[in-house]
Design goal:
With 306 residues, this protein is α/β, with parallel strands linked by helices. 39% of the residues lie in helices and 13% in strands. Helix 1 packs across helix 9, helix 1 packs across helix 10 and helix 10 packs across helix 11. The longest helix has 20 residues. The protein is globular and about 55 Å long.
Length: 306
């Protein structure tokens, strides 16, 4: 079960089904379409979803609510989230945000609040949905964005990268890892082989997706159109390329599926201090690693030139 609509950010699963990779690992995989009206915990608790892709912050929150999920592989070690400003606003460094207005997605206020508190900044947060309009029309000075999605959308709206100033949360001590594979802890005991095979098949599928970007994007577009969802080839190409860099950071040779203890405690402490959770689950009870292979870093033929 993915956490958002069909796009290249889940391309590994679509191409893994299409090329029979999951089947070769003995798994008949179905991707459950995202439905904003069905809470994630429902599909996990009732067994409709055997495995879920979640951001760490959301998984910690579900665990605190009594959903006995565990992380079996952490695919991305770095947060893609940033605050984005225009140079025309006069903002150049983090302290320049003081006294400014920031458009923040509903439900994603925690990282910005923690950042503003860390640097003692007085920033007025304006709650928004997923639109960039307020930022584009200068209604706010700053907006939160993900590197693989909204950042590219703003560039496509007519801005050159030299006109923008990104502030990645990870660069300011607030690295909230994103894509992790989760399941109920009972599954790790009742069927550890399935957990291992699912992680291995996932890594092999992403390896194929990164090595065959054109074929992968064609498939993503085909599925999205079948679901009557708007889709843009250039944007999907950007997304897949950025995902490769998020999953296999510069200097790395493969996807390292380890959930780092420091990242876990960092996110947990921010949530605890924000009174979003009553306590932090011990690391060894939350992270139970599976999988036996890694994805190698191969060049990607990216037509965007980015």
């Amino acid at each position: 079960m993915p956490y958002w609509v069909t796009s290249a950010q889940f391309a590994g699963y679509y191409i893994g089904i299409e090329k029979g990779i999951f089947s070769r690992h003995g798994i008949d995989l179905e991707v459950i379409p995202f439905d904003p009206f069905i809470p994630t915990r429902n599909d996990i608790e009732n067994g409709r979803a055997d495995f879920s892709l979640l951001w760490l912050v959301n998984a910690i929150e579900l665990r605190s609510q009594g959903v006995d999920i565990v992380n079996i592989a952490q695919l991305s070690p770095r947060s893609s989230l940033m605050l984005l400003a225009k140079k025309s606003s006069g903002i150049r460094k983090i302290t320049d945000l003081n006294g400014k207005r920031a458009a923040i997605w509903s439900g994603f206020e925690m990282q910005p609040r923690a950042l503003f508190a860390k640097f003692n900044l007085d920033v007025r947060m304006i709650t928004i949905g997923s639109s960039n309009t307020l930022f584009l029309l200068d209604g706010v000075d700053v907006i939160n964005a993900s590197w693989f999605d909204e950042y590219h959308s703003i560039i496509n709206s007519g801005y050159d990268t030299s006109e923008l100033v990104p502030f990645f949360f990870a660069d300011y001590g607030l690295n909230f890892p994103e894509d992790g594979i989760y399941c109920l802890s009972g599954k790790t005991r009742s069927d550890p082989g399935l957990c291992r095979d699912f992680v291995d098949a996932t890594l092999e599928s992403w390896e194929y997706a990164f090595a065959h970007p054109d074929e992968t994007i064609d498939l993503v577009i085909r599925i999205a159109k079948k679901e009557n969802r708007p889709v843009n080839r250039s944007h999907q190409q950007w997304m897949l390329s950025r995902y490769r860099e998020l999953y296999i950071p510069k200097g790395a040779t493969s996807i390292n599926t380890v959930l780092r203890p420091g990242d876990y405690s960092n996110v947990g402490n921010v949530m605890l201090n924000s009174k979003l959770i009553p306590a932090i689950t011990p690391y060894d009870s939350f992270y139970i690693p599976y999988g036996s292979r890694k994805v190698s870093a191969k060049p990607i033929n990216n037509q965007t030139g980015k």
